[in-house]
Design goal:
It catalyses: uridine + phosphate = alpha-D-ribose 1-phosphate + uracil. Pathway: Pyrimidine metabolism; UMP biosynthesis via salvage pathway; uracil from uridine (phosphorylase route): step 1/1. This is Uridine phosphorylase. The chain is about 35% helix and about 20% strand. The chain has a five-stranded mixed barrel, surrounded by four helices. It has a two-stranded antiparallel ribbon with strand order 1-2.
Length: about 375
């Protein structure tokens, strides 16, 4: 059987790495023109993302009702499409970085500001754009948004709905979302950085089940494979810790849902717990947390490239409680931040966009509506 490869510029067939087996067939593992599984899935992901964007790369909402509204109030961010000039405020955003607590994301904002050489106008400081929401904190550092997402699937889900709408109203092109956080390792010691390949629930299902009007809808919880590979490639061999990839199990609960024996309720024993943890470990789960399933499912559904980078605080195969000293935990929590900063800095260097001026200030479109949005966010329950 003849080889089906074609001549590559300057080369004849069979000189570009193609090898024949004994029966004359090209060996698939060495064929330069046969796509691997990863390449095919990455191609499918690219097509999915492109299908959900406008031709200029900006985010397209999967909700026809928004365009018919007089204004869209983002309650939990204390922003609105009628009250704020969202294009002016956020139109240059490229990266949205999310983490659990307001303090951690304020620290991240200062870190990324130093990394990319962002300068604030003299006499100004970073501003919490969503301070009047009293729910989430948001800081803008040039093309980077740093936002706290709270704890658990409901909290991160609410935030993502409004952040995705914010991207739409601001006409942001090809945004990249990161979740930076902490987790429990499964077979990995505390301090290990984990880049999630995909998110699964407690039964290892790679989808988020959402109840809509009494019906259960399953949304695939996919993360961008190319982004995972690029992040993994930025792990420095000199780092005094391991950086690994694998499946992330996301639960709806910190105690029973994660198989802990130290909650207020526990109706299983140590043997049951260990059997479960060993089983999910063999299935490829390397860490456990509480936000990745919603984060992966909603960003994928919106056609937004996203990645989850966490640091383990303990190995769950060895215990349930976090016992490392605070100063150690503080250093560990900087490790995912360093990796994401490397990615952002490299991207901006390639685009020639380092040392950016400006400061995420509020751009008011309508003072009356601006005041109403603040009042709505303060009183909304």
């Amino acid at each position: 059987m003849p080889c089906d490869c074609v001549a590559v510029e300057g080369r004849a067939p069979h000189q570009n790495g193609c090898k024949k087996s004994a029966n004359g067939a090209a060996a698939a593992s060495h064929h330069p023109h046969r796509k691997t599984y990863d390449e095919e899935t990455e191609g499918a992901e690219e097509r999915h993302v492109n299908d959900l964007r406008y031709p200029d790369g900006s985010v397209r909402l999967r909700n026809p009702h928004i365009e018919l509204m007089d204004q869209d109030i983002l309650y939990h961010l204390a922003l609105g499409s009628g009250s704020h000039d969202l294009v002016e405020m956020f139109g240059d955003v490229k990266f949205v970085c999310m983490g659990g607590t307001p303090k951690r994301m304020e620290q991240f904002a200062h870190t990324i500001m130093a990394e990319i050489g962002h300068k604030l106008p003299c006499g100004t400081t970073l501003q919490d754009i969503s301070q009047f929401s009293y729910r989430y904190s948001m800081y803008k550092v040039g093309p980077v948004l740093s936002v706290s997402h709270g704890m658990g699937i409901p909290s991160v889900g609410i935030l993502l709905h409004e952040l995705i709408k914010l991207m739409y109203h601001a006409r942001v092109r090809e945004p990249v979302f990161f979740r930076i956080g902490t987790c429990g390792g499964v077979g990995y010691e505390g301090g290990t950085v984990v880049i999630s390949e995909e998110a699964v629930d407690g039964s290892l299902k790679n989808a988020l089940d959402v109840n809509v009007l009494g019906n259960t809808i399953s949304r695939p919880a996919k993360l961008d494979k190319r982004l995972v590979r690029e992040l993994r490639g930025l792990a420095d061999p000199e780092d005094p810790y391991d950086t690994v990839t694998g499946k992330t199990m996301c639960t709806y609960d910190f105690y029973e849902g994660q198989g802990r024996l130290d909650g207020a309720f526990c109706e299983f024993n140590e043997s049951d717990k260990m059997e479960y943890l060993e089983r999910i470990h063999k299935a490829g789960v390397v860490n456990i947390e509480m936000e990745s399933l919603a984060f992966a499912a909603l960003t994928h559904h919106a056609g937004i490239k996203a990645a989850v980078v966490c640091v383990t605080l303990l190995d769950r195969l060895k215990g349930d409680q976090v016992l490392a000293p605070k100063e150690v935990l503080d250093e560990w929590q900087q490790r995912p931040t360093k990796l994401v900063c490397r990615y952002i800095k490299r991207y901006l260097q390639m685009k020639g966009r380092l040392s950016l001026d400006g400061h995420g200030s509020i751009a008011v479109k309508s003072p009356r509506r601006f005041k109403l949005v603040q009042q709505e966010s303060e009183t909304y329950d």
